[in-house]
Each structure stands twice: as structure tokens, then as C-alpha cells.
Amino acid sequence: MAKRSVTPAAAWLKQQTRSIRLPLMIATAAGVVAALLFVWQAKYLADLISGLALGEAVSLSVIPLIVGLMAARLLLLWVKDVLGVQASLTVRKRVRQALLTKLAELGPNRSRFGSDGALSTAVFEQVDALDGYLARYIPQQILVLVIPLIILVAVWPISKLAVLIFVGTAPLVPFFMIIVGKGASSASRKQFKAMAIMGGQFLDLMRGLPTLKLLGRTALGRDRLDQSAEQYRAKTMSVLRLAFLSTAVLELFASLSIALIAVFLGIGLLEQLPWAKGEVPVPLASAMFILLLAPEFYQPLRQLGTDYHARAHALGAAETLQPILAATTVQNNGSLAAPQTAATIEFNQLSWQPNGRDVLKQVSLTVSAGERIALIGESGAGKSSMLHMLLGFTEPTSGNVMIAGKTLTDYDLSSWRQQLVWLAQRPEWFSGTIADNLRIGNPSARDDDLWQALQQAGALPFVRQLPDGLASRIGEGGIGLSGGQLQRIALARAVLSNASTWLLDEPGAHLDRATAAELRQQLATASAGKTLIMATHDLADLDWVDRIIRVRNGEIEEVSRG
User: Fold this and answer.
1) Which in 35, 95, 348, 466 has the greatest CB count within 10 A?
2) What is this structure's pTM?
3) Which of 501, 496, 498 is nearest to 342 (CA)?
């Protein structure tokens, strides 16, 4: 028989449980002891009820014992649940931290795993989807084997036929659980995908809302978000439909099985069993004992069926989380401090072939200290990849990047990045004041420094006109300001950082022609004396750069003077 292959997501999910084995083992042990106490409790309760029913003399002193056993059992079940929740919380906290760390290490490369909205959904919603699997499903896998076995051992001396009924009907529950569970796993994956799409569209809508309002197209954004919300609703209802169907099937078979036990015991007490006419094969006290244990026999199976959906939910989440966490990032093994002033940058026979695709092919380029160059090319030509190499977020397949005569891997990456300004198409903004966002690159900057940087970036006039000036608040993603205003503030943040090397990826790509031209002229003034490498597809307004380098299909085809 061929061995069933384990998917990377399933293997990763199993790996997360290694660090919480001890609390889960204690939780499982608590569940087992609780089951033993219930058997003991059922024995005393059955004797009490049968004695009262038959008019026999019974000792009421057994009642405190029954209550004590019930209380102890409830306490153990509470301990089991608390330990499961705490273990789940430990793993989810660790996974969320690892996820945030990995996304930080990936930097701009995180975009290959989805939009920022989709990634935020993964960090919050999909990490929390692991909870049911970790807290309940793993202990239940053991309890579903041990608890029924305890009950079978307790019932065997009383009625072997009852044991056969238990054994014969028990497999029906996991059989249907697996059948329905496969559909639930597929539905969960589709639900997470729809959630990620909706989250990404919502974030994009919020970021672009000012532009949409100016163009009178807010209805279009709303309609697209409505469509995504409807798709998510449909996928969620599909998951719930399967969950309710599975629960109904499990409850039906468990109820029929308990009813079969009850019929057998009842007919036996009436002395009407075909093979035991005129006999009572199971006395009333023993029959009551078995009947009390019957629901407890099927309860772990029913609970496993419910928790099986939690496993399917967790597998769906793991299929999104595992590739992100397994993504290769550049290892920061260097120890040298980066040069504090502008330094020569060399791309030495640089190649990058992710998944066998030639993105960069034997690129060699030298940028002198203080030189400003523009990398011109169509989207996908390899310009951004070269910048990502310099940022230290991407490792070349062959060749290397040299800084001041030493390879980039010789430097401590954090030290090197402190000497860099990164200005992307859409700069990162955080909910807070303009001053807070400016000080990200220089926390010790004074207000006078902020105003001076704004002046150099051409942002001084409109910031002064804001009601609260530097204290004016902007929303996450830059909500509240236009694209041109945000780019000028981003330029002011670059000036404020005092970094020696500026890397720019399509600045002004989403601006109108006049605003983009004005931004480039301000950039020309603000970047004087800096080493600057700018990726762009637009040749306009580049008379201030020292060189224009054309990149096509991962190769440098042409070098011309600006």
C-alpha cells in the first residue's frame, strides 16, 4: 500500500504542536481521569436509582459522594479546556510573531504573497483559525480512543452483547465525519481566499478613496467591494452548511446507537429477548449503569467530529501561512558597520533566477559615490529587483553586490539600511500625525528640522495651511492627503534621515504629469550630494541625473549620459 503523502501545510501544522506537548498531555490526562470519575459516578447513581425504583433500602449518604465526583469531573474538564486554550495561545502568539518578523525580512518582496490587506488578514484571522485545532482537536484524538475503551472495559463483565453493539456502531461516526470533513477542508480554503481578496480590496479602496471621489467613481469601488463581500458570505455559508450537516449526521447516528442500546436493555428487563425468554440478562442496576455510560461512549466521537472542522479550518489557514514562513530571506551574517558617507556601489556579474526564470542576467554596473542614475525600462525588466538586491531583501543566484569594495553580505544589514532611503511608488504611512510619520527616519529630529525638510521637499506651503500643521493627523496608508502631497512628505522624510544613499522605485508613478514633473525637480534639489538610483519607465524630467541606464529583459542594453 502506498504511503499517503503529507502536504507541507499539514507537516507545518503538526510541527507547531511539538512545543506544547506537555500541556496538551496534561489536558488529555485530565480528560481521561474525568472519564474514570464518570464511570464511578454512573455506578453509584445507577445503584441509587435502581434501589429507589425497586423499593429497596438505599443509603442517602451516597449522594454527597456522587456530587463530589461530579464536581471533581467538572473541575478536571475545566483544567483540560484551560490548558488547551493556553497552549493554543502560546503557539498562535509565536506564529504571529514569526509571521510579522518574516514579512519584515521580506520587505518589498512580501507582495508576492498578496496585497497588504490579504497579509493583514493572514496575520490576524488565519492565525486565530489555528485555535480549535490546537486547543481541542489534538487532545480529542487521544480521548476518542481512551474513553470508549474505558467504557467498554466497564461494560464487558456485565453484557458482552452491549459491548458488541458499541463496537459495531462506533465506526459509523468517524466514517461520516471523514466524508463530510474533506468537503469542509476544501470549503475552508475557498473561504480564506475570499477573505484575503476582500481584505485587500477594502484596504485598496480606503487608500484610493480620495482619488475615486475626485473622479466620481466611488460607486465602482463600492460595487467591487460588495461583490467580494458577497463571495465571502457565500463561501462562509458553504462552510457552515457542511458543519451543520456533519453535526446532524453525527448526532443522528449517535442517537440511533444509544436508542439501540436502550431497546436491548428495555426488552431484556421485560424478559422478552428472543434468545432469553423469561430471563433478565441484565438487571436493572446494571442496565441503568450501561444506559448512563452510553452517551459518554459516543460523546468523544461526536466531539471529534465537531473538532474535525477545526482541523479543516486550520489546514486551510496553514496553506496560506506556511509558504510565507518558509520563504527564503537574506541571512544577516555580516558584522561590518556600513560606510557613513556615500560609497561606490557595484553590481558584479549579478544574476537572479527565482523558480528558474531569468530576472537578472549577468548584470554589471558601477555607481560612483555621489552619482545619480536612472534605471529605465518596462515593468518586469529587472529594475526593482536590482533595488531589492541593494536593500538586502533579495539574494542573487550568482554574482554579488559590492559596497565600498566589500560585498554586501560582509556588512550588518541593519547598519547598511540605516544609510538608505527607500522611496517606493506608494510610501508606507501610519495612523498618526505628520510629525510622527516624518520622525520614523529620525526620531530625535526637532520641529525646526521637520519644517526645514518640508521646505526642501516643497511640502511647506500645504502643511502650513493644514489646521494643525505638523500635528495634523493622517490615516493609515496616507488617508487624508492627496498622492502628490504624500510623495512630498515622503521626500521630506528622506531628507530628514540624512542617509547617504537613496533608492527610488517609480516615484510619482501614480501622479499626474504636472505633479510628477514638479516632484522630480524637487527631488533633483533635495538629493544633491547623495548616491541615488531611481527605477522608472518615464524619461521625462531627468536632465538632472548623471546617467540613464536602460534595462531590458534583465540585461543592461544601453548606457547614455543624462
Assistant:
1) 35
2) 0.70
3) 501
- 250 and 365 assigned to the same domain: no
The larger pLDDT score, comparing residue 441 to residue 39, is at 39
Domain for residue 373, yes or no?
yes
Domain boundary among 297, 325, 353: 325
pLDDT in tens, 494-521: 888 878 888 888 776 666 777 777 778 8
Residue corresponding to grid cell 509558504: 323
Q: What residues contact residue 275 under an 8 Å CB cut-off, 6+ apart?
A: none
310's grid cell? 477545526
Cβ 84 vs Cβ 139: under 8 Å: yes
Q: How confident is the model at residue 1 (pLDDT cuts 50, 70, 90)?
A: very low
Is 335 within the bounds of a domain? no
Number of domains observed in the structure of the chain:
2
Residue 422 is part of a domain; what is its CATH number? 3.40.50.300
Tens-digit pLDDT profile for residues 4-26: 557 888 888 888 888 899 999 99
Average pLDDT, the chain: 80
What CATH code is carried by the domain that includes residue 283?
A: 1.20.1560.10
| Highest mean pLDDT, choosing among 27-36, 115-124, 473-482, 524-533 | 27-36
Q: Assign residue 364 a region: left if phi > 0, alpha if psi is -120 to 50, beta otherwise?
A: beta
Cell 477594502, residue? 202
What single letter denotes the amino acid at residue 434? Answer: I
Please answer whether residues 458 and 520 qualify as being in contact, where contact means their C-beta atoms are separated by less than 8 angstroms: no
Lowest mean pLDDT among 152-161, 380-389, 424-433: 424-433
What is the C-alpha to C-alpha distance for residues 231 and 236, in angstroms, rounded to an integer?
Answer: 9
Please check whether residues 320 and 353 belong to one and the same domain. no
Query: What DSSP letter does each residue of 114-133 carry, written as one string?
Result: --HHHHHHIIIIIHHTTHHI
DSSP letter, residue 136: I
Q: Which domain holds residue 497?
A: 345-561
Can you say whether the dihedral through the CA atoms of 231, 234, 236, 238 is positive or negative?
negative
C-alpha 88/C-alpha 139 separation (Å) is: 12
Beta-sheet strand order (sheet of 501-505): 420-423, 501-505, 531-536, 372-376, 547-552, 555-561
Nearest of 444, 452, 547 to residue 491 by alpha carbon? 452
Residue with grid cell 510619520, as numbered in its chain? 437
